[in-house]
Amino acid sequence: MTYLLTQIFLYLLAAFILGLFLGWLIWRYGKPSASEIDAIRAENTRLKSDLDSCTRKTAKLEAQAQVPAPTPAPAPVPAPAAPVAVVEDTAPVPAEKPEGLSAPRGGTADELQLIHGVGPKMEGMLHDLGYYHFDQIANWTPAEVAWVDDNLEGFKGRVTRDKWQPQAKVLAKG
After folding, report:
1. Nearest CA-CA partner of 167 in 97, 127, 121, 111
2. What tens digit of pLDDT does each residue of 23-43 get?
3. Which pick of 71, 149, 157, 162 has the fewest CB atoms within 10 Å?
4. What is the model's pTM?
């Protein structure tokens, strides 16, 4: 019985010593070198500057995209002498296709995805219809807006709902 206990003790002692040796090797050689630490710090600094740059660009684009609504001055309303019947003009605007381009001017299209509501698929659909630039969208008439709203497959009404024209006007100036 003592022989068995002695063997178990020796195996445990050997495992303990081997564990200490492996732990020391990992501790000693597992540390990053000074050049690796410098490379990590440089990468960290570069990423922080990229993040700051993106944050500034985002703030600038958000500020440009916010178009303040005009506040009309209240006008005095005279009292009518007799009851007046108000008839609203509910005639629909006849849809008219806006003029498109066969290719972007200068060979480079504007990044239409900066307009809220335009994603990669929508940008491709607009390019297929011949609309590549912010000023094209900004200059659409109500009849042309109605045509585009009706002809965007799967996205009907998006131009009006997401108010593309005010955004395009701001982006065309910038």
Report:
1. 111
2. 988 888 877 778 888 888 999
3. 71
4. 0.47
Of the residues 50, 66, 82, which one is the last residue of a structural domain? 66
Mean pLDDT for the stretch of residues 88-102? 72
**Separation between Cα atoms, residue 133 and residue 100, nearest integer Å:** 10
Classify residue 99: in a domain, yes or no.
no
Q: Say whether both 142 and 159 belong to one domain.
A: yes
Chain-centre distance of CA 73, in angstroms? Answer: 36
Domain that holds residue 17: 1-31
Residues 1 and 59 in one domain: no
How far apart, in Å, are the Cα atoms of 44 and each of 33, 50, 54, 123, 133? 17, 10, 15, 34, 37
Token pair in block for residue 21: 């040796």
The CA distances from residue 11 to 20, 22, 56, 61, 107, in Å, are 14, 16, 64, 69, 77
- Structural domains counted in the chain: 3
Angstrom distance (rounded) from CA 139 to CA 98: 9
Inside any domain, residue 131: yes
CA atoms within 13 A on the CB side of 142: 4
